[in-house]
From TrEMBL:
InterPro entries cross-referenced by the UniProt entry: DUF4440, NTF2-like_dom_sf
A Pfam family annotated for this UniProt entry: DUF4440
Name this protein carries in UniProt: SnoaL-like domain protein
Length: 151
């Protein structure tokens, strides 16, 4: 009886340690996501966020990699007007060892008005102690009038 009790306690301890580790990874990934969205206009933020082997599928159906995203910063004008700000809501993070999946609703705002919404899914890999997105899918959410056929 004592051995069973000790085994049960050990299993409970291991399970709680695993849950705590997953919760820590989820919190780190959520902080990383929100920092990325807040700094979306900065080249260094993108350099840190995306894996070198990224496959990005845009909401317009185009597929490209990190090199194209980074090239966009080089092509941008020095005095470009301020773009929209971005945020994320309905964030769901699933951690499975060194792989994590983040799904969320991305919104874009300009001058205090919401100008676009997208469902986003990112798959992250932890290498060298850092999470990087290596697969990304963005899907535009149509305005309610468009979604309901109220054109």
């Amino acid at each position: 009886m004592t051995k069973r009790l000790l085994l049960a306690m050990l299993l409970l301890l291991l399970q709680s340690t695993t849950f705590a580790a997953v919760a820590d990874e989820q919190a780190e990934l959520e902080r990383m996501l929100h920092a990325f969205l807040a700094g979306a206009g900065e080249q260094a933020v993108h350099e840190r966020f995306w894996a070198e082997d990224l496959i990005y599928t845009s909401s317009s159906g185009q597929r490209f990699g990190k090199d194209r995203i980074m090239a966009g910063f080089e092509e941008a004008a020095e005095e470009a007007p301020a773009g929209p700000s971005y945020g994320g809501e309905e964030v769901n993070i699933r951690v499975m060892g060194d792989i994590a999946v983040i799904t969320f609703r991305l919104f874009a705002e300009q001058d205090g008005e919401r100008i676009g919404e997208y469902f986003n899914t990112g798959i992250f890999r932890k290498e060298g102690g850092e999470w990087r997105a290596f697969t990304w899918q963005a899907t535009r959410i149509p305005p309610e009038s468009e979604a309901n056929g109220d054109d």
